[in-house]
């Protein structure tokens, strides 16, 4: 079973994603953070197999956190989470910085699980 860290400033979004991930029996959410600074700290503490990282958060945004995570743990599979309006340039930037994929809110259970399986 692969461990997953969810980092999103929206509790509702985190819960929704956690329900999808934990329902699958293939993945287990091991921790949750609310901003990019927490993402870095939680990755160092928990060493997750996969990170779901929101692009837009207070304190430190997802792209800034992704940059740091890729320096600390270059092989860590990170998936960026964004609302439909937040794609475009940020999507390209996230992939360039090392994100493996980008998922959009609202989530579709099967597409989220399929994407996680491919990592």
Structure, described:
- The chain is an alpha/beta fold.
- It has a single domain (2-118), classed as Response regulator (Rossmann fold).
- It has 5 helices and 5 strands.
- It has helices at 11-23, 36-46, 62-72, 89-97, 109-118; strands at residues 2-7, 27-33, 50-54, 78-83, 101-105.
- β1, α1 (11-23) and β2 (27-33) form a beta-alpha-beta unit.
- It is globular.
Write the layout of secondary structure elements.
Blueprint: E1 2-7, H1 11-23, E2 27-33, H2 36-46, E3 50-54, H3 62-72, E4 78-83, H4 89-97, E5 101-105, H5 109-118
Parallel strand pairs: 1-2, 1-3, 3-4, 4-5
Helix pairs in contact: 2-3, 3-4
Question: What's the short version?
Answer:
By secondary structure, the chain is an alpha/beta fold. It has helices spanning 11-23, 36-46, 62-72, 89-97, 109-118; strands at 2-7, 27-33, 50-54, 78-83, 101-105.
Lateral arrangement of strands in the main beta sheet = 2-1-3-4-5
Number of strands: 5
Number of helices: 5
Low-confidence stretches: none
CATH superfamily: Response regulator
Proper CATH architecture: 3-Layer(aba) Sandwich
Biggest sheet details: 5 strands, parallel
| CATH class division | Alpha Beta
Secondary-structure-based class equals alpha/beta
CATH fold call: Rossmann fold
Helix content: 40-55%
Domains (count): 1
Global shape = globular
Mean pLDDT rating: 92
Series of secondary-structure elements, N-terminal to C-terminal = EHEHEHEHEH
- State which percent range the strand residues make up: 15-25%
The CA-CA distance between the termini, in Å, is 13 Å
Return Rg in Å. Answer: 13 Å
